[in-house]
Amino acid sequence: MTTTTTKIANAIEALIEDYHDFNASYAHEYDSFDELHRAVNSNTPAVFKGVARDWPAMRKWDDEYLANSVGDIEIATTPLGNADALVRVGDKDLLVEPLNQQMSMRDFLQQLHSKKGDVVYLQSQNGNLSFPEFALLAKDVPLSIAQMENIMGTKPDAVNIWIGGSESVTSLHHDPYENIYVVIKGTKTFNLFPPVDEYCLGFEHYQRGKYVRDESGELIVEGLDGHVPWTPIDPCLSKEENIERVAQFSLSRCMTVTVNAGDALYLPSGWFHHVMQDGDPCIATNYWFDQAYDGERYSMRQFYNKMINVLRE
Ligand SMILES: O=C(O)CCC(=O)C(=O)O
C-alpha cells in the first residue's frame, strides 16, 4: 500500500469504529408501525411486534388452503438450499443461481415437507404477490404498509411471498430497497451488517453460474458469461473462519434478529443480510420500497463504495 491508500484505509477503519460506537448492536422493538419513521430516519433495523396478528393470512394459510388457492408457480430448486450463493466448482467459486421449475403448489408443499432430494424454495422476488396465480392469497394480506407509504411517499415497488423450509438459506447480500418483512408462519433469523461494514466483507468478482439437470436428473453447475461482485463471508461460519477469508472482517459487527410469526422487521436499504428460517413451512411476505436517492445518503454510499474499490485496485 502507498502512504495515500494506507491513510484512506485508516480513515475507513475509524469510520467503522465510530459507527459501531454510536449505534446499538440490537434492533429496537416497537408495538406498532406508528414508530416506523424513527427507524427509517436513522436507517436502523427495528422489529414491530404483533403487527400482522390480525391479518387473515395468519389463520388461513395452512397447506390445504394454499394448495387449493394457488395453481402452478415458479420454484427455486437447488441441491442444498443454496440459491444465489457461492459454490466451489473445481478450484474456483462461482455465484450460482437456482434452477427455476414450474410446479403446482400442492407438489411444492409435498416436496418441502418430505425433506428428501432437491431443496425447493418459493422465493421469486419479482413482485409475485401481484401475479394472477397468487390473486386469492393477495386478499389475505395488505398490499402495502400505509405508514411506510407515508414516509416514502410512494407505493411499494414489489410485494413478494416467500415459502420455504429450514434447509434454505439466503446468502449475504444487500438490496436498494427499504424492506418491510413480515413473517406469517415459522421464524426467520436475519444476520445483519450495516452499510459501513461493506469494507469488512471483502467483495470480489465471481463468475456467474446456474444449476441445470444433467441426463441422470442430478443438479449440476453450468458456468455462465459474466462476473458479479459478491462477498465470501458466511455468517454460519465462526468469526475466526471469516477473518481467515477477509482480514477486515474483524472490524465488523453482526446484528442477529429473530422475527416470529405475526412480527415485522424493518430492514433498511443497503444493509447486508443473510437469512435463515425455521418452520414447516416458513411463510413470509415482504414489501420493497425503492430507496431514497435525494439527500446525502445514496451519494455518500456511492462515494464510499468507490473508495473501497480504490483500496482493492
Ligand atoms: O427470506 C429470505 O430468504 C430472503 C429475504 C431477502 O433477502 C429480502 O427480503 O431482501
From TrEMBL:
Transmembrane segments: none annotated. It comes from the Eukaryota. Signal peptide: none annotated. SMART domains: JmjC (SM00558). Pfam families: Cupin_8 (PF13621). Residues 120-304 form the JmjC domain. PROSITE patterns: JMJC. This is JmjC domain-containing protein. It comes from Wallemia hederae.
